From TrEMBL:
Keywords: SH2 domain. InterPro entries: PI3K_P85_iSH2, SH2, SH2_dom_sf. Coiled coil: none annotated. Pfam families: PI3K_P85_iSH2, SH2. GO terms for cellular component: phosphatidylinositol 3-kinase complex. PROSITE patterns: SH2. GO terms for molecular function: 1-phosphatidylinositol-3-kinase regulator activity. One of its GO terms (biological process) is phosphatidylinositol phosphate biosynthetic process. This is SH2 domain-containing protein. Residues 69-164 form the SH2 domain.
């Protein structure tokens, strides 16, 4: 049999084998669409449609100062102090020391992770040497609210779960201040109450001594009057 001639059975077998082989190129997965963002600036924004290279901008007229997670010009030391004891996934964004850029502070494994957010020509992202994919800072926050940051850094397998509101912290600080004030006032009350009790006890003792002396004085006066009466009788 000529080896170059392929029988119909062999051809059928080869076609069956080829049908089981993987294709040369794996087809791309379809883009995933997420719910449209809400317009309420006081709530966490939802993520808009995101592709590998672009992201739709959140349509909102709210300025960054109206987003609860944005703290503006606040020092690193203040953020470090206020983020203490917060649970993992808690985050806030503040202005960076570099004009136009921002710093994301994220709680991870009980520590604060500082991540710089770059802005170039109205685009935002974490890597200045690569194309910045986000059209706004809220877009970036919204995206990583549902997507892990391990896309950016494999050690950051976490999302931006809990926005840390500056107003919430201010209110918390006010409550803490009032609690401390109440504690101070209470201690002062206890101190003054103790002083009052001591003064009252001393007053009662003095009153008793005064009453005894008054009784003794009246008895002495009565004795003196009786003595004078007897003296007058003897003179007669």
């Amino acid at each position: 049999m000529n080896p170059l001639v392929i029988s119909s059975k062999q051809l059928t077998a080869r076609r069956s084998l080829n049908s089981l082989m993987l294709p040369d190129c794996i087809p791309e997965e379809p883009e995933t669409s997420y719910p449209s963002p809400v317009d309420d600036c006081d709530s966490m924004v939802s993520v808009s449609t995101v592709t590998a290279s672009t992201t739709n901008s959140i349509s909102s007229d709210c300025s960054l100062s109206e987003y609860p997670w944005f703290w503006g010009d606040v020092s690193r030391d203040e953020v470090t102090e206020r983020m203490r004891d917060k649970i993992d996934g808690t985050f806030l964004v503040r202005n960076s020391s570099t004009s136009g850029d921002y710093t994301l502070t994220l709680r991870k494994n009980g520590n604060n992770k500082l991540i710089k957010i770059y802005q170039r020509d109205g685009k935002f992202g974490f890597s200045p040497n690569e194309s910045l994919p986000f059209s706004s800072l809220p877009d970036l926050v919204a995206y990583y609210h549902v997507h892990s940051l391990k896309q950016y850094n494999r050690d950051l397998d976490i999302t931006l779960k809990y926005q840390f509101s500056y107003d919430e912290e201010s209110a918390s600080s006010t409550v803490e201040q009032l609690t401390n004030l109440l504690h101070t006032v209470h201690l002062d009350y206890l101190r003054k109450s103790k002083e009052y009790d001591l003064d009252h006890e001393e007053y009662m003792q003095t009153s008793q001594e005064l009453n005894l002396k008054r009784r003794a004085l009246r008895a002495f006066e009565e004795t003196l009057a009786s003595f004078n009466t007897q003296l007058e009788l003897h003179k007669k």
